[in-house]
Design a protein that fits this description.
The structure is a single chain. The chain folds into four domains: 8-93, no CATH class; 136-209, no CATH class; 210-358, Trna Endonuclease, Chain: A, domain 1 (3-Layer(aba) Sandwich), CATH 3.40.1350; 360-389. It is built from 13 helices and eight strands. Strand 4 and strand 5 (272-282) form a beta hairpin. By secondary structure, the protein is α/β, with parallel strands linked by helices.
Length: 389
């Protein structure tokens, strides 16, 4: 019989297993980072050589074809024509390296043009190397996102949107699947709605920043992950139950800094009971966020009800160090002019937004965003003409 106590043996095993898992994770991250840098440099070499070709398109295709055959013979899989073209595309999409800010581990300004030479193999006596050895970049791409993340980012044509998604994926720790879903739902375009060009460029440089209540609003919210069909017999409690069942996905869609607090939160006023569908807390805004779910078109009564909920939380729930409560009414349709005239002009607490139960095509969502923008401009023009008269 062993003299080693079983408990001590188990604890030792757990500690060693943790060390091994941590080491494997570090190796995997290191390998991934090395791959990303290598692919960027391969793309850079191809582009620089291509630029000397007379007929760039034909010359580039032939160059990649020959290069693929030679690299495959020497290194095996991973260097087919499609892969090399993707590496070339990677360099063209990120000519200065990652857009991730320095505070998140991204490259320092100007890092893309600085390289650290690897130690070159010794040249034969009396001879010089014809070409310099390969180079490893200074941290152009931090060990945060995988090559699979970057392959997804390459599908985005807009440089501003591409930078935004890269920054947000790094900051929020999105998996590849989560990044794919956010790109498919046109998160950047939804957040860009009603922003001017400077604000859109700020999104691309810094990602989404939550500083005021309106920063948490997307229009529309896309809730396709709930697997609910829009039907006349649906009930609001069905929508609420589906959200609770898929709370992780809902938090990803609703935005940054949200923590779930309660569902059907009861408020009692002189013996009358009222119920808030969902209560969240946003740690970035340091405020409670109340969500009321409405099937069908938004009414002014819905906004009035939310105003009561917000007032209650401000007076009886909010601590002195916290900001004023925010109320969001989620509905399947709304009249922007009615919302504007119902709420005070200086309103920042009550927000109305639409939701839809399916993931639209890019063309459908862009058309909807255009319609919403034109409607918002129409409301502004109408408001201005009323003030003049």
């Amino acid at each position: 019989m062993s003299d080693v106590p079983e408990r001590s043996s188990d604890e030792l095993f757990e500690r060693i297993a943790a060390i091994v898992e941590a080491a494997r994770g570090h190796v995997a991250r290191s390998v991934n980072t090395a791959m990303v840098h290598a692919y960027w440099h391969i793309g850079r070499e191809i582009v620089e050589v291509e630029q000397h070709g007379q007929d760039r398109a034909r010359y580039g295709d032939e160059l990649v074809k020959q290069l693929s055959a030679r690299l495959t013979r020497q290194f095996g899989k991973g260097f087919n024509i499609t892969s090399l073209k993707r590496m070339r595309q990677f360099y063209r999409a990120f000519p200065n390296g990652s857009a991730i800010p320095t505070e998140l581990g991204g490259p320092e300004k100007g890092a893309a043009v600085r390289h650290l030479s690897l130690e070159a193999p010794a040249a034969p006596k009396g001879a010089a190397l014809r070409h310099p050895s390969p180079v490893a970049a200074a941290v152009l791409f931090p060990p945060i996102l995988s090559w699979t993340h970057y392959r997804l980012l390459l599908t985005i044509e807009s440089a501003e949107a591409r930078a935004f998604y890269e920054i947000e994926a790094a900051r929020e720790g999105w998996s590849v699947r989560q990044l794919e879903r956010q790109i498919a739902s046109l998160l950047f375009e939804r957040l860009s709605m009603n922003k001017n060009q400077d604000e859109i460029l700020a999104l691309a440089r810094r990602g989404q920043e939550v500083a005021v209540p309106a920063d948490v609003i997307k229009d529309p919210f896309v809730l396709e992950f709930l697997d609910l069909k829009e039907r006349p017999t649906a009930l609001e409690r069905d929508l609420e139950r589906a959200i609770i069942d898929r709370l992780e996905e809902f938090l990803l869609e609703i935005g940054k800094g949200f923590c779930f607090v309660a569902r059907q939160k009861r408020l009692t006023l002189d013996g009358d009971h009222f119920y808030v569908d969902l209560v969240f807390y946003n740690r970035l805004l340091r405020a409670f966020v109340l969500v009321d779910l409405k099937l069908g078109k938004l009414t002014h009564q819905d906004l009035g009800q939310m105003q009561m909920y917000v007032n209650y939380f401000d007076r009886y729930q909010r601590a002195e160090h916290e900001e004023r409560t925010i109320g969001i009414v989620l509905c399947s349709a709304k009249n922007d002019a009615m919302v504007k005239i119902t709420l005070p002009e200086d309103n920042e607490q009550i927000l109305a937004a639409r939701y839809q139960m399916y993931l639209p095509t890019e063309e459908e969502l862009k058309a909807e965003l255009t319609r919403e923008r034109e409607e918002a401009e129409r409301v502004l023009r109408l408001s201005g003409s009323n003030e003049e008269s």
